[in-house]
Amino acid sequence: MLDTNPIPKRPRVIIVGGGFAGVNAAKSLAELPVEITLIDRRNHHTFQPLLYQVALAVLSPADIAQPIRGILRKQKNARVLMDELVGIDTAAHQVELATGACLDFDYLVLATGATHSYFGKDEWAKFAPGLKTIEDATEIRRRVLLAFELAERQMIEKGWHPQLNFVVIGGGPTGVELAGAICDIAQLYMKRDFRQIDPSRSKVMLIEGSPRVLGAYPAVLSAKAEKELTRLGVLVRTGVHVTDIGPGWVKIGDQQIDSVVTLWAAGVQASPVGKMLGATTGVKLDNRGCVIVNQTLHPPELPNIFVLGDLAHYEENGKRVPGVAQPAMQMGDHIGKIIAADLTSRPRPPFHYFNKGDLATIGRMDAVANISWPFHAKLSGFVAWVTWLVVHIFFLVGFRNRLAVFATWVWTYMTFTRSARLITGDQSLIGWTEYKANLKGKS
Ligand SMILES: Cc1cc2nc3c(=O)[nH]c(=O)nc-3n(C[C@H](O)[C@H](O)[C@H](O)COP(=O)(O)OP(=O)(O)OC[C@H]3O[C@@H](n4cnc5c(N)ncnc54)[C@H](O)[C@@H]3O)c2cc1C
Predict the structure, then answer these.
(1) Taking the model in full, what pTM does it have?
(2) Mean pLDDT of all residues in the chain?
(3) How many angstroms separate the CA atoms of 150 and 391, rounded?
(4) Which is the closest atom of ligand 1 to the Cα of 47?
(5) What is the spatial distance between Cα 3 and Cα 173, in angstroms, rounded to a whole number?
(6) Whose CA is nearest to atom 26 of ligand 1?
(7) What is the CATH number of domain 122-266+365-439?
(8) Most ligand 1 atoms within 8 A of CB, residue of 96, 168, 264, 324 to mutate
């Protein structure tokens, strides 16, 4: 067992998850007399809102990720442990880690985020990867870039190649951003580098089950986003549900759609840590496995176990605070106030979410923004896109990353080149053989 108690008098705070919520929670405790251990199964914090730019070869992984040790290097009361939480013993106040270590805690902060949900059809995952981690982004990049390479090779070998159809499932911000970015890369960037095929003839379809894309945004911004996607060349299909996914195809009802690369942006569920806590303690979970917390960010029966960010189901004015970056950061910030109150025997201050608005890009130089602070506005087009750029640069962790991302954006947008277009790993594309066979004679 690890020695976890070097300074016994200081409360031990274990934070699990080095995402927005976990990192902010650790920082909020910097000035308090506590011993923090931040545990993450990865050694880096990922800025998820820019993952799609890694997936579509604008940015490199290191531009949007930062070693957690580096983030907390100067914080003397914090240590970082790369490991995975596999068990919680609330009676013994201990967490169990994948490596076998058990650590004692006085406070436990669970901030393990969310993961993809294939609505019970996990077999779809290999045909339609989702986007959540750096590994997901590089796998999507590999598939998309490989599709163009294989078409070029096929053209040289056989004198024909199948039309390249990409299908993105899910019309939330991630799906909209992915669909717009695939159009961009095909029409503006790839077409300059290939000689045998014309990448700009590729097709992109975005499938959304509800009646409109960006369903959480005001209807006027959804309509603008759909119009702009259509202008870019994305075929938007709303109000339809995917019924099956296989190698080189997607089904809507009985209709089979050929798809050289299928991407999943349709569903999320809480990290399994929610169910783990529910199973051992009986705390209430919502239908996505998120832990229901009160205004001091813990399940009512477990006052020293806080649940933050995407893993938490927290309601204000009868509505669930959304699983996006701002609430996660604000919840993290609030942990410092709660523990400071405990240490000075004051009542815990309640958490209030301060909604500043939502932003989503739609390809090059276009975006929608539903701003609630410092003024109320519904923006679209170039102004929204500039707002998006400024906000994302501002919230990126690390000065080097801000500089690198800013420089890469300027270079990319001015020169129409994408230097992160690397195909790494396996050189084969799942479903390519079936896709080619289905489209033989059609192209
Ligand atoms: C592709 C994409 C685009 C997005 N775009 C936007 C956007 O534009 N704007 C916006 O506001 N929000 C956006 N979001 C949502 C936002 O990123 C999340 O709401 C936010 O990251 C949640 O923060 P979190 O700290 O709760 O979880 P996360 O940031 O997901 O961090 C969870 C951490 O926990 C770790 N972990 C998980 N399980 C374990 C375990 N068992 N043991 C140890 N460590 C574990 C993970 O490795 C991870 O580091 C996007 C999300 C994605 C996936």
Answers:
(1) 0.95
(2) 95
(3) 37
(4) 17
(5) 44
(6) 309
(7) 3.50.50.60
(8) 324
